[in-house]
């Protein structure tokens, strides 16, 4: 596997405070906001984010699970927010693994299409959507390892873990 050790960073904290080209939001198919990291991003970024989400809804009717769309980041330190929709955990037999990997892949692709160099991800689906954290962490890291080398502009991926359990899991996987 390609050595990406310098290109993947791990931090514990609040993704709304991270100063990168784009942060990723764990949204839902409506794109109208919600709890968890989605609520935090809309709250800290202000109404401009929701306005653009509503324009996207008017154009394409929301965002499918595993897909991603991009908006302004409003008042956040980041320039953009990529909204992706993780799968709801339903026992693992409803294509959840592939859909979660797709969230990471589609977000990378969208960022690279916009010629962005740094992207920060939360631990998609591991909160309200109930995806097992260790399984989600393995999928996230594998998706980045597989797809970052194909990107033309993206130079760095930052995993932003809010809770200590996720942080410890990523530390373990990335230090192997
Ligand atoms: N910064 C970084 N990570 C955070 C933050 C934050 N400020 N706040 C929470 N997390 P969740 P999901 C972590 O529930 O499981 C929303 O209502 C959290 O610890 O935000 O994909 C949407 O509208 C967890 O590890 O997203 C959807 O309806 C991770 O973010 C639904 O929740 C994801 O937890 C999506 O559920």
Low-confidence regions? none
- Determine the number of helices (DSSP H or I, runs of at least 4 residues): 5
How big is the Rg?
A: 15 Å
Task: Return the structural class.
Answer: alpha/beta
Number of domain units: 1
Write structural notes for this entry:
The structure is a single chain. With 176 residues, this protein is of the alpha/beta class. The chain starts with 7 loop residues before the first strand and ends with a helix. The chain has one domain (8-174): Leucine Aminopeptidase, subunit E, domain 1. Strands 1-6-5-2-4-3 form a 6-stranded mixed sheet, sandwiched between helices. The mean pLDDT is 97. The protein has 5 helices and 6 strands; from the N terminus they run E-E-H-H-E-E-H-E-H-E-H. The site of ligand AR6 has 25 residues, from strand 2 and helix 1.
Describe what is shown at a glance.
The protein has 176 residues and is an alpha/beta fold. 39% of the residues lie in helices and 18% in strands.
Topology:
Layout: E1 8-12, E2 22-27, H1 36-45, H2 47-60, E3 68-72, E4 80-85, H3 96-113, E5 118-121, H4 133-147, E6 156-161, H5 164-174
Parallel strand pairs: 1-6, 2-4, 2-5, 5-6
Antiparallel strand pairs: 3-4
Helix pairs in contact: 3-4, 4-5
The structure holds ligand AR6.
Ligand AR6 binds next to strand 2 and helix 1.
